[in-house]
Amino acid sequence: MAAFFSDSHYRAKALGAPYAALWQTLERNASGGKRVRPRMVMAAYEALGGTDFDAAAHVGAAFELLHTALIVHDDVIDRDFVRRGGVNVSGRYRDIATTAGIPLPDAEHRGMSVAIIAGDLALFNAYRLIDRSGVDGILRTRLHDLLDEAMFVSAAGELYDVDFALRSGPAGGADLPTVDDILEMERLKTAVYSFETPLQAGAALAGASAAAIAALGAFGRNIGIAYQIVDDLLGVFGDERDTGKTTLGDLREGKRTVLLAHAAAHPEWAEVADLVGSPELTPDEAARIRAVLEQTGSRRFTEALARDFANRAWEALVDPELPDTAREEFRPVVASVLGRVR
């Protein structure tokens, strides 16, 4: 990633200081985070006997750059100006505009416009990093296909998420998506590009069999869903000292989750349905919502669902096509997800 951005900075300087500054902003927004996707690529590659770590690093960086593109665009969709505790691309360019005296609506529009440009650059260059890996022929085509699948499927998940958010009525109303709707959206939007395809890319690069690649894909699909379910749980019931994330944000946003979809099927939900999605939600009101989530059994249901998907992921790992090194490598991943569920 550092080498890629160094080269991009050099090229951008020739086109002027504003463009060079955009690349610096994009690099800052690509830094930090857990590096889940390149970790999946590298772990699968090493567990299945790969030895060309430079090539694998390029593939891992490609998936991380894809992630950067998606979150930059996702923030535009959600009209967010903050990411990981600091201003994102939109926020950076909004603030520059307001400092220059531009009215806030125009400044926000400028910020989101620049973010679209930045996301486009990250998206296109994810494919370029595959090309720079040194892999050629059928294998490079296969890696391109996996990156394409990640992007193609994630776009569908994002579309469904937008559709869920735009449905009329309160977050707890009759039009709330079902549990199955939410699970499918989370699989498409997050699990495929964060776990399933990076694992398959690492395995394919290592020369694994088609059966082994499929088994790792099944593992990634299920652990990715489990991971997202747990994230949604922690967004409401987590300890802010551990997660670094407020437990009011998802409720104020009215984020469509398994928790809410399950609770909405119970009459008790009517007591708090109008509170969900309120930007002014207070801690006391959030406590009322949590109490209803406990009363309806929605918290227990969601925790059990996360464990179920984590167990499905482990079942995929015991496929005889996978070597013991793969099970040793990913056992801690399953344990980590299960450990995050109380």
Automatic annotation (TrEMBL):
GO terms, molecular function: metal ion binding; prenyltransferase activity
GO biological process: isoprenoid biosynthetic process
UniProt keyword annotation of 4Fe-4S present: no
Cofactor: Mg(2+)
Keywords: Magnesium, Metal-binding, Transferase
Highest taxon in the source lineage: Bacteria
Family indicated by similarity: Belongs to the FPP/GGPP synthase family.
Name of this chain's protein: Geranylgeranyl diphosphate synthase, type II
Transferase in keyword set: yes
